[in-house]
Design goal:
By secondary structure, the protein is an alpha/beta fold. The chain has helices spanning about 15-20, 70-90, 145-155, 180-195, 210-215, 235-245, 250-255, 255-270, 300-310, 330, 335-350; strands spanning about 10, 45, 50-55, 95, 105-110, 115-125, 130-135, 160, 165-170, 200-205, 225-230, 290-295, 315-320. Strands 5-6-8-7-10-11-12-13 form an 8-stranded mixed beta sheet, with helices on both faces. Helix 2 (about 70-90) runs parallel beside helix 8 (about 255-270), helix 4 crosses helix 5 (about 210-215) and helix 6 crosses helix 8 (about 255-270). The longest helix has 20 residues, at about 70-90. The protein starts with 9 loop residues before the first strand and ends in a 10-residue tail after the last helix.
């Protein structure tokens, strides 16, 4: 894998072979202003907050053998944290979305204030049953919501399943963890209400999709909310991922939360203050079903409960026993369809006044 081309780049530990043979001892602290404090390993280019792998092997900026064990540990963790930051700076994940032969949806497009042209599946249901907007998580496209769309349509719901900007077939520059995606969610809600004018509309938001439901100009104007595995704050989301990805070194890795957030934010153009679902959830004005896995390392159950505590009534909390940060419909389809389907039917079905039929 080659490096990204860049002007004004600082390649930590990289230099000519001659310089290294002569004991090139450049101080890693010189590069702290370039991005995440230090990368310390040759193989990672720091440039205006961007990291890219270099094809050469791991060579330390300071002679590895001269470092004491504590400093070796710090340097190693710093390197891995740098790679984690690179992983969080998700490039566009655009790809061709295969058509669902089971659903046989209508392919639709609509503009979003994010600047993207959003592509989506639209499946019309039965009149008076309700409509549901399905919003996927990071790195996923509308196909990840196909199972939910199938069971909802079987119950008569009209369904809209879009690709967020920079995902699936919707163009974009970077995934933004719910910031620009909230604009896509708003555009999708407008499209669905225009396409199903007489229906009450609910939303199912998964992880980042749930955050997008609440952020930006939101919360969305929905008649029912189902939020799954939603992070309360981006700081908690990043800290939990660093802690999980580095295993036994997770406690040390969490110390890099602030520089990683700063790095990622500078690259994708989003501020930390824009990614605080917990500060927005109190503004929803419809029934809520909040779902979380009891073994989710990315959104621990205590954090999900803190988000739930901020939400207004009426609200229901469902802790899915043993579930991690996974597709909860796939994890327990019968319970999911019974609970979620029942919740949406209760709040979206239009009650028929028999007196008006005479």
């Amino acid at each position: 894998m080659g490096t990204r081309e860049c002007s004004d780049a600082s390649v930590i530990g990289q230099g000519s072979r001659d310089k290294r043979d002569k004991g090139d001892q450049r101080d890693p602290r010189k590069f702290r202003s370039k991005g995440l404090s230090v990368c310390a390993c040759e193989g990672y280019t720091v440039c205006k907050g961007r990291y890219a792998l270099h094809p050469s092997s791991m060579v330390m900026t300071t002679s590895w053998n001269r470092l004491n064990p504590a400093r070796r540990l710090l340097v190693s963790v710093t390197c891995v944290a740098s790679v984690a930051a690179c992983g969080l700076v998700t490039s566009p994940r655009e790809s061709t979305v295969p058509r669902s032969a089971t659903l046989q949806p209508e392919d639709v497009t609509f503009a979003s204030a994010s600047g993207s042209l959003i592509r989506a599946w639209f499946i019309r249901g039965k009149a008076g049953v309700g409509a549901v907007l399905l919003l996927p998580g990071v790195g996923a496209d509308r196909t990840s919501m196909e199972g939910r769309a199938l069971f909802l349509h079987a119950r008569g719901f009209t369904v809209l399943a879009p690709d967020f900007q920079a995902s699936g077939e919707s163009p974009g520059h970077h995934v933004t963890y719910g910031a620009r995606e909230s604009l896509d969610a708003d555009a999708a809600m407008t499209f669905l209400r225009d396409s199903a004018r007489d229906e009450r509309v609910g939303v199912i938001g998964v992880s980042m999709g749930g955050a997008a439901t609440l952020l930006g100009h939101g919360p969305l104007l929905a008649d029912a909310f189902v939020l799954e595995s939603v992070y309360p704050t981006i700081r908690q989301a990043v800290s939990n991922r660093l802690g999980t990805w580095l295993g036994p070194l997770g406690g040390i890795a969490r110390l890099f939360t602030s520089p990683v957030i700063s790095l990622v934010g500078s690259v994708v153009g989003v501020k930390e203050a824009e990614l605080q679902p917990i500060s927005r959830i109190a503004a929803i004005r419809a029934p809520l079903l909040l779902i979380a896995g009891t073994d989710d390392p990315y959104t621990p159950i205590a954090e999900a409960e803190s988000l739930f505590a901020r939400a207004p009534n009426p609200k229901t909390f469902w802790a899915v026993g043993g579930a991690a940060h996974v597709d909860l419909h796939d994890y327990t389809p019968r319970d999911y369809e019974r609970r979620v389907g029942g919740f949406l039917e209760e709040h979206l079905r239009v009650m028929v006044n028999l007196d008006t039929l005479h």
